[in-house]
Protein backbone atom coordinates (compact mmCIF):
# COMPACT_ATOMS: atom_id res chain seq x y z
CA UNK A 1 0.00 0.00 0.00
CA UNK A 2 1.29 3.43 -0.97
CA UNK A 3 0.75 6.45 1.23
CA UNK A 4 1.31 10.11 0.44
CA UNK A 5 1.76 12.31 3.49
CA UNK A 6 1.75 16.09 3.17
CA UNK A 7 3.22 18.55 5.64
CA UNK A 8 4.08 22.23 5.87
CA UNK A 9 0.68 23.87 5.74
CA UNK A 10 -0.46 26.51 8.18
CA UNK A 11 -1.48 30.12 8.69
CA UNK A 12 0.57 32.80 6.97
CA UNK A 13 0.13 36.51 6.41
CA UNK A 14 -0.36 37.92 2.90
CA UNK A 15 2.99 38.23 1.19
CA UNK A 16 4.45 35.40 3.23
CA UNK A 17 5.87 32.05 2.18
CA UNK A 18 5.27 28.39 2.90
CA UNK A 19 6.95 25.22 1.74
CA UNK A 20 4.81 22.12 1.42
CA UNK A 21 6.28 18.64 1.38
CA UNK A 22 4.77 15.32 0.36
CA UNK A 23 6.53 12.04 1.00
CA UNK A 24 5.47 8.78 -0.61
CA UNK A 25 5.98 5.58 1.33
CA UNK A 26 5.39 1.91 0.70
CA UNK A 27 6.88 -0.69 -1.62
CA UNK A 28 7.51 1.65 -4.53
CA UNK A 29 9.22 0.67 -7.75
CA UNK A 30 9.09 4.13 -9.30
CA UNK A 31 7.13 7.37 -9.27
CA UNK A 32 6.18 9.12 -12.47
CA UNK A 33 4.33 12.45 -12.34
CA UNK A 34 3.96 14.13 -8.95
CA UNK A 35 1.78 17.14 -8.46
CA UNK A 36 -0.03 19.52 -6.20
CA UNK A 37 -3.72 20.36 -6.37
CA UNK A 38 -5.80 22.61 -4.19
CA UNK A 39 -9.43 22.97 -3.24
CA UNK A 40 -10.85 26.17 -1.80
CA UNK A 41 -14.18 26.18 0.08
CA UNK A 42 -17.07 25.86 -2.33
CA UNK A 43 -14.81 25.32 -5.33
CA UNK A 44 -13.62 22.35 -7.34
CA UNK A 45 -10.21 20.85 -6.86
CA UNK A 46 -7.75 22.42 -9.30
CA UNK A 47 -4.24 21.74 -10.49
CA UNK A 48 -1.47 23.88 -9.05
CA UNK A 49 1.64 22.32 -10.55
CA UNK A 50 3.04 19.00 -11.75
CA UNK A 51 6.56 17.66 -12.17
CA UNK A 52 7.70 14.63 -14.14
CA UNK A 53 10.26 12.09 -12.98
CA UNK A 54 12.79 13.86 -15.19
CA UNK A 55 12.12 17.24 -13.61
CA UNK A 56 9.96 18.91 -16.24
CA UNK A 57 7.39 21.18 -14.67
CA UNK A 58 4.02 22.60 -15.59
CA UNK A 59 2.09 25.24 -13.69
CA UNK A 60 -1.58 26.06 -13.93
CA UNK A 61 -2.60 29.64 -14.50
CA UNK A 62 -0.18 32.37 -13.52
CA UNK A 63 1.31 30.68 -10.47
CA UNK A 64 4.71 30.15 -12.03
CA UNK A 65 6.88 32.84 -10.55
CA UNK A 66 5.22 32.67 -7.15
CA UNK A 67 5.13 28.88 -6.81
CA UNK A 68 7.95 26.43 -7.48
CA UNK A 69 7.50 22.67 -7.60
CA UNK A 70 10.49 20.38 -7.12
CA UNK A 71 11.17 16.78 -6.16
CA UNK A 72 13.79 14.58 -4.58
CA UNK A 73 13.57 11.20 -6.29
CA UNK A 74 15.86 9.55 -3.75
CA UNK A 75 13.40 10.51 -1.00
CA UNK A 76 10.21 9.98 -3.03
CA UNK A 77 9.26 13.50 -2.03
CA UNK A 78 7.75 16.44 -3.86
CA UNK A 79 7.84 20.02 -2.64
CA UNK A 80 5.87 23.18 -3.34
CA UNK A 81 7.54 26.45 -2.46
CA UNK A 82 4.93 29.18 -2.31
CA UNK A 83 5.97 32.82 -2.14
CA UNK A 84 4.05 36.10 -2.14
CA UNK A 85 0.99 34.30 -0.88
CA UNK A 86 -2.40 35.91 -1.34
CA UNK A 87 -5.69 35.34 0.48
CA UNK A 88 -6.95 33.70 -2.72
CA UNK A 89 -4.36 30.96 -2.20
CA UNK A 90 -6.25 29.77 0.88
CA UNK A 91 -7.23 26.15 0.29
CA UNK A 92 -6.55 22.57 1.19
CA UNK A 93 -3.51 21.47 -0.80
CA UNK A 94 -3.34 17.87 -1.96
CA UNK A 95 -0.41 15.86 -3.20
CA UNK A 96 -0.92 13.49 -6.13
CA UNK A 97 1.36 10.91 -7.69
CA UNK A 98 1.44 8.14 -10.26
CA UNK A 99 3.22 5.30 -8.51
CA UNK A 100 4.42 1.98 -9.88
CA UNK A 101 4.35 -0.96 -7.50
CA UNK A 102 4.56 -4.69 -8.05
CA UNK A 103 0.87 -4.61 -8.90
CA UNK A 104 1.19 -1.98 -11.60
CA UNK A 105 0.80 1.80 -11.79
CA UNK A 106 -1.91 3.62 -9.88
CA UNK A 107 -2.76 7.19 -8.99
CA UNK A 108 -2.64 8.19 -5.32
CA UNK A 109 -3.76 11.20 -3.28
CA UNK A 110 -2.57 12.53 0.03
CA UNK A 111 -4.92 13.53 2.81
CA UNK A 112 -4.40 17.26 2.27
CA UNK A 113 -2.85 20.07 4.23
CA UNK A 114 -4.59 23.35 5.02
CA UNK A 115 -3.05 26.62 3.87
CA UNK A 116 -4.64 29.78 5.19
CA UNK A 117 -3.48 33.21 4.06
CA UNK A 118 -4.87 35.89 6.30
CA UNK A 119 -3.81 38.92 8.29
Please characterize this protein's 3D structure.
With 119 residues, this protein is mainly β. Helix content is 0%, strand content 58%. Strands 2, 4, 5, 6, 9, 10 and 11 form a 7-stranded mixed β-sheet that branches. A 4-stranded antiparallel β-sheet has the order 1-3-8-7, with no helix packed on it. A hairpin with a 4-residue loop joins strand 7 and strand 8 (77-82). It is elongated.
Short description:
By secondary structure, this protein is mainly beta. It is 0% helix and 58% strand.
Strand-helix topology:
Blueprint: E1 3-7, E2 10-12, E3 18-25, E4 30-39, E5 46-51, E6 57-59, E7 67-72, E8 77-82, E9 91-101, E10 104-109, E11 113-117
Parallel strand pairs: 2-11
Antiparallel strand pairs: 1-3, 3-8, 4-5, 4-9, 5-6, 7-8, 9-10, 9-11
Give structural attributes.
about 120 residues, mainly beta, single chain, seven-stranded mixed β-sheet, four-stranded antiparallel β-sheet, about 0% helix, elongated
Amino acid sequence: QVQLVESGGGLVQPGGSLRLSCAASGIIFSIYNMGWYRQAPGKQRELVAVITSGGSTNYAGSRQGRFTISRDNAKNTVYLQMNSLEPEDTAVYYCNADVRTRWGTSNYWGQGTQVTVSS
